[in-house]
Specification:
With 340 residues, the protein is α+β, with helices and mostly antiparallel strands. The protein has four domains: 3-70, Uridine Diphospho-n-acetylenolpyruvylglucosamine Reductase, domain 2 (2-Layer Sandwich), CATH 3.30.43.10; 75-187, Uridine Diphospho-n-acetylenolpyruvylglucosamine Reductase, domain 3; 197-227, no CATH class; 236-339, Uridine Diphospho-n-acetylenolpyruvylglucosamine Reductase, domain 1. Helix content is 24%, strand content 29%. It contains seven helices and 20 strands. The chain has helices spanning 30-42, 95-104, 197-205, 213-227, 248-257, 275-281, 310-328, and strands at residues 3-8, 20-27, 47-50, 56-58, 63-70, 75-80, 84-90, 129-130, 133-134, 139-146, 151-156, 177-187, 236-239, 244-247, 264-265, 270-273, 288-289, 292-294, 301-304, 337-339. Strands 6-7-12-10-11 form a five-stranded antiparallel sheet. β17 (288-289) and β18 form a beta hairpin. The longest helix has 19 residues, at 310-328. The two termini are 23 Å apart. The chain binds uridine-diphosphate-2(N-acetylglucosaminyl) butyric acid.
């Protein structure tokens, strides 16, 4: 295990921004993780856990601590019955490779989350989701190093505090748990309609009437390729903003002015409004602000075209947030985490 020093974070985050990390280390087993973590904590070094860097924004000043890259491997069937297969996946595995393996095994549950960049261990942190599925729907439990009690723990799904793009791992327990593996229970049944609108539209267009895990993966791959820039080629972090959650009274007001607005009922007196649509209404879609382009195929995505640093990104972000606030009186939120 080698500790590297002064590593430019822009090389490890898909937004391609950020100054140096004082230290960086890769860990490949839970034991290595514990040793590195405890050693750094004993020295009072700030610690940040990094997966694929596809949902993290680094700052110009870098990070005056240690960045731990979790590379723990593993893909193991831990239970199997007539209807389901339960699989334990190492936190360091590529999320999409794991999805592909489950699709090849004809298992259902995460196929619509194909092509999401990043690692399996990062997926629960923001409760990744796409095209009608989110990881909270299939995650049974996960194992993590609890830095408070200095022990490995198993957290069941209910303990993870999953909500839309949220969990305890980025909320009130931020920094406490380091996920080492996740356990997902997947179904042996074929994917069943109704499908997310964009998926169904794709199936209709190609006259696809038999739905398998493969056809869903192929459809999602085609839709994502069309709408989302590939982070390995074009610097971005996927959706840069969360969709907006508004109280229903505010929704009623908005709908008087914008009767055609797309809305998803969240069921608890709140509704989700697509932030991509809100941004589009401000006229910023396709525009470049401080070197950051509001993606012309999906206004939720910011592309780093020529930002000179984090300050440019922050200025662009704040202008977009301000424009949406001025027009709709809705405060939209950044989705990727800040490396700090
Ligand atoms: N829309 C617009 N203008 C835009 C973008 C979207 O009007 O510029 C409208 C669309 O017409 C559609 C609605 O917004 O009616 C939803 O759009 P879409 O299905 O493309 O999804 P999204 O809300 O932009 C979310 C996730 C994506 C996920 C897709 C598909 C968040 C923050 N983003 O995006 O996740 O792939 O749904 O399920 O929830 C990510 O988190 O990085 C990500 C890409």
């Amino acid at each position: 295990m080698e500790v590297h020093t002064n590593i430019p974070l822009k090389n490890f985050t898909t937004m391609k921004l950020g100054g140096p990390a004082k230290f960086m280390v890769e860990v490949r087993t839970p034991e290595e993780l514990q040793a590195v973590y405890d050693n750094a904590a004993a020295k009072n070094l700030p610690i940040f856990i990094l997966g694929g860097g596809s949902n993290v924004i680094a700052r110009d000043e870098g990070f005056a601590g240690i960045v731990i890259r979790v590379r723990i491997p593993g893909f193991e069937i831990v239970a199997d019955d007539i209807n389901t297969t339960t699989i334990k996946i190492g936190a360091g595995e590529s999320w999409d490779s794991a999805v592909k393996r489950t699709v090849d095994m004809h298992l259902s549950g995460i196929e619509a989350m194909s092509m999401i960049p990043g690692t399996a261990g990062a997926a629960p942190v923001q409760n990744v989701g796409a095209y009608g599925q989110e990881i909270a729907d299939t995650l049974v439990s996960l194992e993590a190093y609890d830095s408070q009690t200095k022990s490995f723990v198993v957290l069941q799904n209910e303990a993870c505090g999953f909500a839309y793009r949220d969990s305890i791992f980025r909320g009130d327990q931020k920094g406490r748990y380091i996920i080492t593996n996740i356990t997902l229970k997947l179904s042996k049944s074929l994917p069943q309609p109704p499908f997310y609108d964009a998926l169904q539209a794709y199936f209709d267009k190609l006259n696809i009437k038999i739905f398998t895990q493969e056809t869903v993966r192929d459809a999602v791959t085609a839709i994502r390729t069309e709408k989302l820039p590939d982070p390995t080629i074009t610097p971005n972090t996927g959706s840069f903003f969360k969709n907006a959650i508004v109280e229903n009274w505010q929704l009623t007001e908005l709908q008087q002015t914008y009767p055609d607005m797309k809305v998803f009922d969240m069921g608890n007196g709140t509704s989700k409004i697509p932030t991509g649509w809100l941004i589009e209404q401000t006229g910023l879609k396709g525009q470049v602000l401080h070197g950051m382009r509001v993606h012309d195929k999906n206004a939720l995505v910011l592309i780093n075209e020529s930002a000179t640093g984090y300050a440019d990104l922050a200025a662009a972000r704040d202008e977009i947030i301000g424009a949406v606030r001025d027009k709709f009186r809705i405060q939209i939120e950044q989705e990727p985490l800040e490396l700090s």
